[in-house]
Amino acid sequence: MARRTPDREYIPPVQTLQVRYAKRGRMRFASHRDFQRAWERALRRVGVPMAYSAGFSPHPKVSYAGAAPTGAASEAEFLEFSVVQQIDPRAVRQALNAALPEGLDIVAVVEATAPLVDQLRASRWRMEWPFDVTEAIAAFAAADSVEVERITKAGRRILDVRALCSAIQMPEPRVMELTVAHAEPTPRPAEVVVAVRTVFPDLPDVPVLATRLGQGVPVDGGGLAAPF
Amino acid sequence: MGVSYPGVVQSVYPALERILPLVRKPIQYVGGELNASVKPWESVPVRWALMYPDAYEVGLPNQGLQILYEVLNERDDVLAERTYSVWPDMEALMREHGVPQFTVDAHRPVSAFDVLGVSFATELGYTNLLTALDLAGIPLHADERTDEHPLVIAGGHAAFNPEPIADFIDAAVIGDGEQAVLRLSDIIRDAKAAGTASRGELLDAIAASGVAYVPAKYEVSYLPDGRIRRVAPVDASTPWRVAKHTVSDLDEWPYPKQPIVPLAETVHERASVEIFRGCTRGCRFCQAGMITRPVRERSKTTIADMVQTSLSATGFEEVGLLSLSSADHSDIAALTKGLADRYEGSNTGLSLPSTRVDAFNIDLANELARNGRRSGLTFAPEGGSERIRKVINKMVTEEDLIRTVAAAYAAGWRQVKLYFMCGLPTETDEDVLQIARMAKEVIRTGREVSGRKDIRCTVSIGGFVPKPHTPFQWAAQLGWQQTDARLALLREEIRSDRELGRAIGFRYHDGRPGIVEGLLARGDRRVGPVIEAVWRDGGRFDGWSEYFDFDRWMSCAEAVGVDVDWYTTREREENEVLPWDHLDSGLDKEWLWQDWQDALDEVEVEDCRWSPCFDCGVCDQMGTEIQVGPTDGVILPIVQVTS
User: Fold this and answer.
1) How far apart are CA A129 and CA A136, in angstroms?
2) Please, which of A171, B66, B113, B256 could form a disulfide with B49 given CB 3.0 to 4.6 Å?
């Protein structure tokens, strides 16, 4: 009686879709795992003909590209998923938006043409302090190299945050916008804040509102070419 | 706190947003879940804040609260929002930044609502009530509140004896909440319209209506030896006893229809459908079974509709078919087969929390495991010896149990969990040691029938806590030292045979939290000061072992002059006035006493669903009746239409 074979037949995927979504308002406090659960439930609610992995506990085939950290808002998060029947990207976008909580918003759904990872080489971030940071940002921008220590389970590692930052701008005295190159590892917004405070220690340590404005491939003139 | 909101009620979110980056799991405080509801404040006359006094991850899946939330919000003249206990890291920051207790739906301050309704599944939430009141700026003591403060109303199973929290609440609803909250809403709405909504007038109206118990309208007097002399209403308009509410015809109340889907991870990641309410198996230790009588089943077609509605409203992967003993539903075989057929191959899991010790239970489990999941099977013999099982009225013989478990292993299950209690009335070491023998026999037989060595059995055991409105309400609770000693003996006995013992897991709860639970469960109004002293000393989240502090409870009890043993390990006599006697669960006190005597004589009692009425009193007293099937109708397949 003990069945050791999965009773679901494996059906190969026929289409891969790529999704750009936003984390807005209070949903910025959703962790990546929180988003994953919400996303997979939305797929089930909508009845998307998901492709499942083979095996004893099949799970839907979804892959997420470098998610923004808990607490950061984003206008440009990306993922891709596969289905076993062709679906209309536009219709599925609408249905998924209705099935997700407000603030987790699907911005675009397209059919995949190239792997996401090749199209997401850098992120544009907006970082907002509750006070004027002109002087601190000027000092940070003027530095060539600012090292920050990251402590992980695997141990300590030093990363040069400043070297990976470019196109630093200040649209307002409280706001810095900058482009952060994706690397191994990519600096997080919190580490950018630490780097700024390293060159300008007088800057008070307060929560900074970070928003990912875009992801893409850097182009001449400091902009990013978004995948879609 | 003194946070005032002149005129318009503002969201506290802007202030909250500044501290959210600093707390653990901020998502639990932001609301915005799928199927949550926010109504404009000024659009309704009656506003409820509903609280589950534990962390969001525990409180959100609570069915009671979700049902009331939806029932209230369906009304045009009522709004309801939810609030949960905040963790100590959040509490500290809220105090530092002046953020009051808030609802997660619209982040409105709890103090602005008309009612704060708190559902107590367990007594260990009492200190968390005090945290919420204090953070809300609501005086802890009901008699210090003014017209500006919400009415604080308790509900849930623990509210069947609300005396220990009588000082802190304005009222308690006992029994099913669906109709009671609507009647309370009517009273509040009408009083507001008539200009008679002062705190005193409202509580008078509520007390006189009998819809809820208002502790301040009753006076307790005591005998010189400390026992209660009597509990009497303070005026002629207040009834001597307050009766529980019973919803009849559950098919008319198919809630929740739109279960809330949390973003945060919670303790139950599934939808739940209650397939019946009440239980008449008559297990003498079981408060839930005693206070929720009679059995009221939902029809299988209503259940099937509710399953589909909640799946499509939520996207959950699993549905639990809940009740106190789900395998006892009169249509359960057709129901499980119908649902298993309908969802076969869909990656939808069905679960049936059932602990019945019989072969039928395994048939059901096999049916539900068709979709591939085959985790563990759970049985609850509750007592280790046949003698003690007669005392608690758990009618299962050792032979039945072994045969049943053997059938489970033969059917391919590898892991079986057995639930027991320690400290039952009349129990001796010998009764508990029999658990070890039983577990070993289970493994021996299991290996034989399955031909495998890798089968396992887990013994899970906790201390018994006597509860109000049960035949054991008079019983002496076993002291924690004796409980722990007995559990240690049992562990030794299990491990004494290394070969079999290796296949037996042993999980137990130490006896100390049970003593505090016992104090709060059978306490009277004199226990309130202990709760307050513990809270003032920092007591929070008593249901969590990492926060629970037994020594603090004992030293605070001593400091306010409460003898914990008197409330817990003392056996009561027949004529003693019990603190909850004026709260009417329908059970006849004489019948309960007779059942207690039968327990001591090891005499069993049948289930009234399958045998003549034995006059427990409930149906007579409450004007209710048993509602069981089977019903007509078939569970149809769902046709999937995809774009």
Assistant:
1) 11
2) B113
Architecture of domain B13-235: 3-Layer(aba) Sandwich (3.40)
Q: Rounded to the nearest 5 degrees, what angle is found at the Cα of B60, between the Cα atoms of B59 and B62? A: 70
For B21, the closest of A31, A71, A91 (CB atoms) is A71
For residues A164 and A218, membership in a common domain is answered with yes
Rounded average pLDDT over A87-98: 96
The residues, any chain, with a CB within 8 Å of residue B272's CB and separated by 6 or more, are B61, B63, B259, B310, B319, B320, B322
Put simply, whether B264 touches A (Cβ < 8 Å) is yes
Answer yes or no: are the C-beta atoms of B22 and A207 closer than 8 Å.
yes
Of B345, B410, B643, the CB nearest to A88: B643
* A56/B316 Cβ within 8 A: no
CA gap A179, B558 in Å, rounded: 63
The per-residue pLDDT for range A177-201, each reduced to its tens digit, is 999 999 989 999 999 999 999 999 9
A189/A178 same-domain check: yes
Question: A204 in contact with B at a CB cutoff of 8 Å?
Answer: no
Look at the domain B270-374+608-643 and name its fold. Answer: Transcription Regulator spoIIAA (3.30.750)
**Same domain, yes or no, for A136 and A92?**
no
List of chain A residues whose C-beta atoms are within 8 Å of the C-beta of residue B31 = 26
CA separation for the pair B40, B27 (Å, rounded): 23
Per-residue model confidence as pLDDT tens digits over A65-86:
989 999 999 999 999 999 999 9
Which residues lie across from B504 on neighbouring strands?
Answer: B457
